[in-house]
Amino acid sequence: MSEQLDILIFGAHADDAEIGMAGTIAKHVAAGYKVGICDLTEAEMSSNGTVELRKQEAQAAADVLGLTIRTNLGLPDRGLFVTPEIIAAVTSEIRRHKPKIIFAPYWEDRHPDHVMCSKIVEEAVFNAKLRRYMPELPPVNVQQLYFYFINDLGQTDLIVDVTEQYEVKERALSCYESQFSSASSAVVTPLNQGYVERVKARDSLVGQRQLIPYAEGFAVKSPYLVQLFKPKEA
Predict the structure, then answer these.
(1) What is the CATH number of domain 7-219?
(2) Nearest-angstrom CA–CA distance, 226 and 66
(3) Rounded distance, CA 204 to CA 163, Å?
(4) What is the tens place of the pLDDT at every residue in 58-108?
(5) I need a labelling partner for 115 at 20 to 30 A (CA). Which of 27, 38, 146, 151 fits?
C-alpha cells in the first residue's frame, strides 16, 4: 500500500517510536500532517507477549496517535544488520511513501537493534535519492533525517514541547500492556519495572532547560537550516 506522507518514523520494534516521540507525532497529526510509522521487525524475540498481540497493540497505538499508516517489514528481530537486502527493503518503504522528513532511533542505545535500525535508515535515506539504485521505484530526496531517543538520552539538538500532547503519549504507551505492565507479564524485564514512569521523568527533564513541563528531544547529523533567528515572544 502506498500513501504519500509528510513524516515517516522508523523503529526496530513496535513501541520504539512511541517511547521516543509519541507526543511529537500527536502534535503533527493534530496540525494536519500525514504521519506514518514503519516497524522493521515483529519483535518476535520479546520476552513477553506474542507477535499477534504486539500487532494488535501497535494498531491500537496507531489509532490513538491518528497515524495515516503503520507498516511492518517483517525483518528478523535481533537479526538486523546493514546488508544490501535490508537496506533495499527500507529504501523501498521510503520510495513508496515519499516522506519529506524521516525519523530514526538515535545512533547510540543499549539495545543493538535500535543502533542497527539507525544505521540502516541512514543508509536507506542516502540510497533513496540515487536514480540508478532500484530504478523500478522513483527516487526520493528526503529533506531532513532526525534521530529520536529510546533508552539512552544523548546530545539533544532540538526539542519539541509536547506538554499538551502528553496525555496522548501516555495513552499510546498504555496500549503496549504486554510490554509495560508488570501484572500481565510472565518475565521480569526493564520494560515492566517502571519504564514508562522513567520515560515521563526523562521527558520532563528534557523540557526543564526551557521551563517546559514535557518535551521530546532529537538529534541531527546535518546542519539544521534556519531562515531567521527570532527572539521568543514575551
Answers:
(1) 3.40.50.10320
(2) 29
(3) 9
(4) 999 999 999 999 999 999 999 999 999 999 999 999 999 999 999 999 999
(5) 27
